[in-house]
Design a protein that fits this description.
Layout: H1 13-45, H2 50-98, H3 102-105, H4 110-152, H5 154-201, H6 203-208, H7 212-237, H8 240-264, H9 270-312, E1 332-339, E2 350-357, E3 362-367, H10 373-378, E4 388-393, E5 396-397, H11 403-409, E6 410-413, E7 422-423, H12 424-428, H13 437-446, H14 450-455, E8 463-464, H15 473-485, E9 491-495, H16 503-516, E10 521-525, E11 537-542, E12 545-550, H17 552-558, H18 560-576
Parallel strand pairs: 3-10, 3-11, 6-9, 9-10
Antiparallel strand pairs: 1-2, 1-4, 4-5, 7-8, 11-12
Length: 577
């Protein structure tokens, strides 16, 4: 397995060391038991010495109890070490993902990250747990059993020396043949998880379009691929058992043949034959264990590569050593900004953007689909970094700020509103976990969410189900706006966040903004002219460029795009009336 991941063992090093130590002690006890059994048969029974049988029998009981004790301790330590190692790996991946920028997250699908944190880490956990137990047990068992066999019969020991490398080579060959199929199956797991996730998240759409059969067929196809890959791998691994059994019976027959002659000629006792057979079984079973662990390690190797891929991902945005932790005001300046999602040399989403916004202003942004309205505002809290030029907040380049400090002062309600499982109180407190009930209710009133929340039987203690599917689109938007307001930011960005509310409610929200947060810079992206008509400045975007800036009255006179949108919407409104 990848050595880099071993750093995640951390506080479980003691258990990881003690587990193999107790395994070795267990092996010592198990190896001595057959030797003592041979004495009971060859000395105690042959001489009909009851006292000797009782004496050696008691030593067998002690050895068995010690073996049991050491085995239980080894199992406990191995389980603790394996579970702890997996816990630390999950912690490291999750914390790493928290540092990812949007660009880093774009490199991994959600289902892929979930698979890596569940199935892949479970594979690594099992391989690690078995390694510290069985890889310590098997070699010592083979070596000690060989030493004891040499003392009993050198010919049989020679037979083991020939059998072990041949059988070990065969079992390793089988494991290597199965390995490529295990690697492929985890990529298919990502696709399978993605299919399930999409189906669950879009269940309302699936049912609305009566596409259940299509989704079932899609699931069956990918599930069949996973089944075929696993079946191929398991069919190859299935050879382990018959090869092992065949070798075991052949070796035992050879032992009986060799031992039979030795017993006839008096150079070996029947009790020693019993011990040799037990040692043979111990050696062969140890080889089986090694192969089993080897297969698990090969499965885990594919999972290890996928985990390492996440841990090796370098966060695009990192704080500078002396990052600024105080945002002075809500001034925003775009200076000759170019931006491409692909980085240098990619197609530009924003081109030559020069923009200056004063603290406390209300700015409207309008433009056609694909004009990069969302891209523009995502550069302000540094969700992405500019490709060229600079974005300044409070007169300071956003790259100079501590990321947490910057984003704490830039509240953003994204185009895709997200609510989390929990009460309405808990969801709103994402903006400020220490906020009082009164503060939560106040921001909900500003966002025009309080009236519908009060209609719920449990009010603010109403549970929001996964994804917020038990509230409407407009209700979800207002709760998200309230959550953003609770942060008391210097800059508030609404990315088309009132599209699902009626114009009256929209106007009431904007009125609350003017009266309650006059010093906060407010940027409103909207498709409705009425949502931004009273803004201090309106920015018209077209194909990633600023096509016009001004008040609604100024743009009606000077900007063709704004005038067309305005007239089409006003005309549509008149016709409706």
């Amino acid at each position: 397995m990848n050595r880099k991941l071993f750093k995640s063992i951390r506080e479980y090093k003691k258990e990881s060391i003690l587990a193999p130590i107790f395994v070795i002690l267990e092996v010592f006890m198990e190896v001595l038991i057959p030797f003592q059994m041979s004495k009971i048969i060859d000395i105690g029974i042959m001489n009909q010495d009851l006292n000797y049988i009782i004496k050696v029998g008691l030593s067998l009981v002690v050895l068995a109890m010690l073996a049991l004790f050491f085995g239980v301790k080894a199992g406990n330590y191995a389980a603790t070490a394996g579970a702890g190692y997996a816990k630390n790996l999950r912690h490291d991946i999750f914390y790493k993902v928290q540092d990812f920028s949007f660009k880093n997250i774009d490199n991994f699908s959600t289902s892929s990250l979930v698979t890596r944190m569940t199935t892949d880490i479970t594979n690594v956990q099992m391989a690690y747990m078995m390694s510290i137990r069985l890889l310590a047990r098997a070699p010592f068992m083979i070596i000690l059993s060989m030493i004891m066999t040499v003392q009993l019969n050198k010919q049989i020991a020679l037979l083991f020396l020939i059998t072990i490398p041949i059988l070990g080579g065969l079992l390793i060959f089988i494991a290597k043949k199965a390995h490529p199929h295990f690697i492929k199956v985890f990529d298919e797991y990502d696709i399978l998880n993605n299919t399930v996730q999409e189906n669950v998240n879009a269940s309302r759409v699936v049912k609305a379009y009566v596409r259940e059969d299509h989704e079932i067929e899609k699931f069956h196809k990918i599930s069949a691929v996973v089944y075929r890959l696993f079946t191929k791998a398991e069919k190859i691994v299935a050879w382990n058992s018959p090869v092992m059994q065949f070798t075991m019976y052949v070796v035992i027959l050879c032992i009986v043949l060799i031992s039979g002659k030795a017993i006839v000629f008096g150079s070996m006792e029947s009790g020693q034959l019993t011990s040799v057979i037990v040692y043979a079984l111990q050696i062969l079973m140890s080889l089986m264990m090694v192969t089993f662990v080897f297969v698990m390690i090969m499965i885990a190797e594919a999972s290890t590569d996928r985990i390492t891929e996440v841990l090796d991902e370098v966060p695009e945005m990192q704080n500078k050593p002396n990052a600024i932790k105080e945002v002075p005001n809500g001034d925003i300046d775009f200076e000759n900004v170019d931006f491409s999602y692909a980085g240098e040399g990619g197609n530009l989403s924003l081109k030559q953007v020069d923009l200056h916004i004063k603290s406390g202003q209300t700015i409207g942004i309008i433009g056609g689909t694909g004009s990069s309205k969302s891209t523009l505002v995502q550069l302000i809290p540094r969700l992405y970094d500019v490709t060229k030029g600079s974005v300044k907040v409070g007169g300071i380049d956003v790259r100079e700020y501590d990321l947490e400090a910057l984003r704490d002062q830039v509240s953003m309600v994204l185009q895709k509103n997200v609510l989390f499982s929990g009460t309405i109180y808990e969801n709103i407190r994402w903006g400020n976990e220490n906020a009082t009930d009164e503060e939560v209710q106040h921001v909900c009133k500003l966002a025009q969410a309080d009236p519908f929340v009060q209609e719920f039987p449990k009010g603010y203690d109403t549970m929001i189900v996964q994804g917020g599917n038990n509230v409407s689109g407009g209700q979800k938007q207002r709760l998200c706006i309230a959550r953003a307001l609770l942060k008391k930011p210097k800059i508030l960005i609404l990315d088309d966040s009132t599209s699902a509310v009626d114009t009256k409610t929209d106007a009431m929200i904007r009125k609350a903004f003017r009266e309650e947060i006059p010093d906060t810079t407010k940027i409103i992206i909207a498709q409705r002219v009425s949502s931004i008509e009273d803004a201090d400045q309106i920015i018209v975007l077209d194909d990633g460029k600023i096509n016009g800036i001004g008040t609604s009255e100024e743009l009606l006179k000077t900007n063709e795009i704004y005038r067309e949108v305005y007239e089409s919407q006003m005309k549509g409104g008149n016709e409706d009336e």
